[in-house]
Specification:
It is built from 10 helices and 6 strands; from the N terminus they run E-H-E-H-E-H-E-H-E-H-E-H-H-H-H-H. It is an alpha/beta fold. It has 2 domains: 139 residues, Response regulator (Rossmann fold, 3-Layer(aba) Sandwich); 62 residues, Arc Repressor Mutant, subunit A. Helix 2 runs parallel beside helix 3 and helix 8 crosses helix 9. This is Response regulator transcription factor. It comes from Streptomyces phyllanthi. InterPro entries: CheY-like_superfamily, NreC/VraR/RcsB-like_REC, Sig_transdc_resp-reg_C-effctor, Sig_transdc_resp-reg_receiver, Tscrpt_reg_LuxR_C, WalR-like. Keywords: DNA-binding, Phosphoprotein.
C-alpha cells in the first residue's frame, strides 16, 4: 500500500496501525499527489506496484482529486481510497468520477479504514456512512435551483449573467474554452433552462448580480 498525505504524523499513525495487521503492508509514503505518482512510477519499474493507495484530497503541489485521475489512468490495477476531512458532495462526486474506490472521513474509526482498504483490494467500493447518506439523499431528493450547482458552476453563472462569452469566461477563470462551454451546458441542464438569457434572468432573481441597464 501507498499512503499519501501532506501531514507526516498522519502518515506515520496510519502506517503504524496497518503494519501490525497480517494482511497489510505499507510499501511507501508520499506527501502530495506529485510525489505519489513519482513513487508509483519507480515501483512500476520494479514491478512492485501496491494494490491500494490511501490518499488525502487537500495537499500542495498536486491535490488528491487530480492525483486520483492520473493514478487510475496510468495504473488501472491500483485501487484508490480517499481519507480526508472534507465530506462535501462536490468533492465526493469529483473523487468517485476520477475512479476512487472508497471515500472515508478522517474521523472514521480505524476499523473502517481497514475495511475500506480490504474492500478496495477485493474490487469493491466502501463509503463513509455520512457520505453514503449524502449520496442517497441526492437520489431521493435531488438538489434544485442554486443548490444543484457546484461552486465553479455558480461562478460561471455570474459571468454568463454579466454577458461574457465562453472564451471570456475561460480567460477569467483560467480554464479552456471547451471547459467553460461544458460548465455553461451543465448549469443550464441543472437549472432546466434553455438559453443564456434565461440563465442571466435567473441569476438576477437570485440576487447573484444586479439587473443590467
Amino acid at each position: 500500500m501507498l499512503i499519501v498525505d501532506d501531514h507526516a504524523v498522519v502518515r506515520r499513525g496510519i502506517r503504524a496501525y496497518l503494519e501490525v495487521l497480517d494482511d497489510m503492508e505499507v510499501a511507501a509514503e508520499a506527501a502530495d499527489g506529485q510525489e505519489a505518482l513519482t513513487r508509483l512510477d519507480a515501483m512500476a519499474a520494479h514491478r512492485e506496484l501496491p494494490d491500494v493507495v490511501l490518499i488525502d484530497l487537500l495537499m500542495p503541489k498536486m491535490d488528491g482529486s487530480t492525483a486520483i485521475g492520473l493514478i487510475t489512468e496510468r495504473f488501472p490495477g491500483i485501487r484508490v481510497v480517499v481519507l480526508t476531512s472534507f465530506g462535501e458532495m462536490e468533492r465526493v462526486h469529483a473523487a468517485l468520477a476520477r475512479g476512487a474506490a472508497g471515500y472515508l472521513l478522517k474521523d472514521a474509526e480505524a476499523g473502517e479504514v481497514v475495511a475500506a482498504i480490504r474492500a478496495a483490494a477485493r474490487g469493491e467500493v466502501f463509503l463513509d456512512p455520512v457520505v453514503a447518506r449524502g449520496l442517497t439523499q441526492e437520489i431521493v431528493s435531488p438538489p434544485a435551483g442554486l443548490g444543484a450547482l457546484t461552486s465553479r458552476e455558480r461562478d460561471v453563472l455570474v459571468l454568463v449573467a454579466e454577458g461574457r462569452s465562453n472564451q471570456q469566461i475561460a480567460d477569467e477563470l483560467v480554464i479552456s474554452e471547451r471547459t467553460a462551454r461544458t460548465h455553461v451546458s451543465n448549469l443550464l441542464r441543472k437549472l432546466r433552462l434553455t438559453s443564456r438569457t434565461q440563465a442571466a434572468l435567473f441569476a438576477v432573481r437570485q440576487g447573484l448580480v444586479p439587473p443590467r441597464g
